[in-house]
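Input structure tokens:
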């Protein structure tokens, strides 16, 4: 995609559901190009189909993984040539306390990394 059309590019993590998905829809309606990122490639593909492939691109990405983040940014630049705004929206919760002992420490690590870098 050429940057000559001057469409601004919005990168949104956690875009497969909820606030991220709604933000992507509103951004496209406002004339932005969007890159939607999340772990669920199926949901992202469906969203891009809804938004239009010329206006949106999906990137499956675990934001807690630096290499995947770098790939997400590079794919965005390769496709649209720029990034004008980022909505770091990815996040999740385990739904119970660490103190209760229901989750392994690595599960909490993943949650914290996603919620901080999301």
């Amino acid at each position: 995609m050429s940057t000559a059309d001057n469409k601004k590019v919005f990168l949104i993590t956690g875009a497969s559901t909820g606030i991220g998905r709604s933000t992507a829809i509103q951004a496209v309606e406002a004339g932005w190009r969007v890159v939607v990122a999340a772990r669920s490639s199926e949901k992202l593909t469906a969203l891009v189909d809804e938004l239009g492939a010329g206006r949106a691109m999906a990137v499956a990405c675990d934001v807690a993984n630096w290499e995947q983040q770098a790939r997400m940014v590079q794919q965005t630049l390769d496709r649209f040539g720029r990034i004008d705004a980022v909505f770091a929206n990815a996040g999740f919760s385990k739904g119970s306390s660490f103190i209760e002992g229901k989750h392994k420490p690595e599960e909490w690590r993943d949650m914290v990394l996603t919620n901080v870098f999301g």
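The beta strands are 9-13, 33-38, 56-60, 85-87. Residues 3-117 form a domain with the Rossmann fold fold (CATH 3.40.50.720).
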